[in-house]
Design brief:
With 313 residues, the protein is an alpha+beta fold. It has four domains: 3-61, no CATH class; 67-192, Tetrahydropterin Synthase, Chain A (2-Layer Sandwich), CATH 3.30.479.30; 197-265; 275-301, no CATH class. The protein is built from seven helices and nine strands, in the order H-E-E-E-E-E-E-E-E-H-H-H-H-E-H-H. The chain has helices at residues 3-20, 98-105, 112-131, 152-157, 164-176, 194-265, 267-282; strands spanning 24-27, 31-37, 40-45, 49-52, 58-63, 67-71, 75-78, 84-95, 180-191. Strands 6, 7, 8 and 9 form a four-stranded antiparallel β-sheet that branches. It has a three-stranded antiparallel β-sheet with strand order 3-2-5, with no helix packed on it. Strand 2 and strand 3 (40-45) form a beta hairpin.
Length: 313
C-alpha cells in the first residue's frame, strides 16, 4: 500500500470521527441518559450501547447505581427531655425515574453534575426533617445500658421496619415525586456536646451501680436460701443421729440389765470378775506397780477368793 493511499484512509477516518462525534454517543451499563432538545426531554435511554442524536441535541447521562456516599451534615437535635445530641445520618438512594429527576432539579442550561448537586441539597433537607424523630424520644432511650429500653433501632427503621426515619423519608420522597428511590437510612454517628458528656457518663455509671445492687440483692437472697436449707438438713441429721444414739443406748441398757440380773444372783462372782478386768487393763509386759499386796484388786495375786459353787450350798 502506497503512502498516498494510507494518507487518504487516515484522512477519511478523521473526517468520519469529526462527522460522527456530534451525532453519536454511548451509554454505559451503569447509566441512564436523556436526549435533550433545547432543555426539553426528547427521549430516555436505559440500556447500554451506541446511540444517535441530532447535532443540536444534548445528552445528559446520570449514574443509576446506588449512591452510598451520601451523608447529611451533622446537626444538633433536642430530645424529648431537652437533652442535646449531635446526629449524622447516611442515606442509600438511587434514581428511579430519570425524566422526573431531571425535570425536578434542572433549571436553565444546567449540566448533569449541577442537577445532581440540587438533588443532593434537597435530599439533605428531607433527611433533616426525618431526623426530627429524635425529639420524640428521651435521652436515656438512645444512650443506655438497658437493652429493653434501647430505642435506637426503632428510631432508624421503626418496629419491624415499618416506621422510624426510613418510613418517614420514603413517604416524603414519594409525596414530592422527585424521581428518587430511598433504599436505606441509618445513623452514621451520634454524640453529645462536651457540656453534657460528664452527665452522660455519670448516668451510665449510675445504671451500672443499679445493676450491681440488683445482683448483690439476688446473691444475698440465694445465700439466705442456701443457708436455711443447710440448717434444716443439719437439724434433720442431728435428730436422726440422736434417735439412733438413743436406740443404741436402749439396746445397751437392755443387754446390761441381763448381766446385772446374773451378777445379783452371785455378788462375789461379780466382784471377782470386776477385779480381773481391772488387772487386765492395768497390767501388761511393761507395767511396774509398787502397791500394797493387800490393796484391791491386787490381793488376788496372793490367793484367790473362796468361791463356793452354788450347787454345794
Amino acid at each position: 500500500m502506497s503512502k498516498r493511499v494510507l494518507f487518504i484512509l487516515v484522512g477519511f477516518a478523521c473526517v468520519v470521527i469529526l462527522v460522527m462525534n456530534p451525532i453519536a454517543f454511548t451509554v454505559r451499563y451503569q447509566e441512564k441518559a436523556l436526549v435533550v432538545t433545547f432543555g426539553k426531554i426528547d427521549r430516555e435511554i436505559s440500556e447500554a450501547g451506541l446511540y444517535w442524536k441530532m447535532p443540536w441535541q444534548d445528552v445528559m447521562p446520570f449514574d443509576a447505581r446506588i449512591r452510598t456516599d451520601f451523608a447529611a451534615t451533622a446537626r444538633e437535635i433536642n430530645t424529648r427531655d431537652k437533652q442535646n445530641i449531635i446526629v449524622n445520618v447516611f442515606v442509600n438512594w438511587r434514581i428511579s425515574d430519570v425524566s422526573t429527576y431531571y425535570n425536578t432539579f434542572h433549571t436553565g442550561n444546567d449540566s448533569n453534575k449541577e442537577v445532581d448537586m440540587r438533588a443532593k441539597i434537597r435530599l439533605e433537607g428531607l433527611v433533616a426533617d426525618a431526623a426530627n424523630i429524635f425529639s420524640e424520644y428521651n435521652f436515656n432511650q438512645l444512650v443506655t445500658l438497658d437493652k429493653s429500653n434501647f430505642k435506637l433501632p426503632e428510631v432508624e427503621r421503626g418496629a419491624d421496619d415499618q416506621g422510624g426515619m426510613l418510613k418517614r423519608l420514603k413517604d416524603k420522597v414519594k409525596r414530592e415525586n422527585i424521581g428518587v428511590e430511598i433504599l436505606d437510612i441509618g445513623i452514621n454517628r451520634m454524640g453529645v456536646p462536651d457540656m453534657v458528656t460528664e452527665a452522660v457518663f455519670e448516668r451510665m455509671r449510675e445504671d451500672r451501680r443499679a445493676e450491681i445492687r440488683i445482683l448483690e440483692a439476688e446473691g444475698k437472697k440465694q445465700a439466705s436460701s442456701i443457708l436455711a436449707r443447710a440448717r434444716s438438713e443439719a437439724k434433720q441429721i442431728v435428730a436422726e443421729a440422736q434417735a439412733q444414739a438413743r436406740k443404741i443406748e436402749g439396746q445397751g441398757d437392755a443387754a446390761a440389765a441381763e448381766y446385772y440380773t446374773e451378777f445379783q444372783k452371785n455378788p462375789e462372782l461379780a466382784a471377782f470378775l470386776r477385779k480381773l478386768e481391772t488387772l487386765r487393763k492395768t497390767l501388761n509386759s511393761r507395767t511396774t506397780i509398787i502397791l500394797d499386796n493387800q490393796s484391791t484388786p491386787y490381793e488376788l495375786l496372793n490367793k484367790g477368793p473362796e468361791i463356793l459353787n452354788q450347787t454345794d450350798k
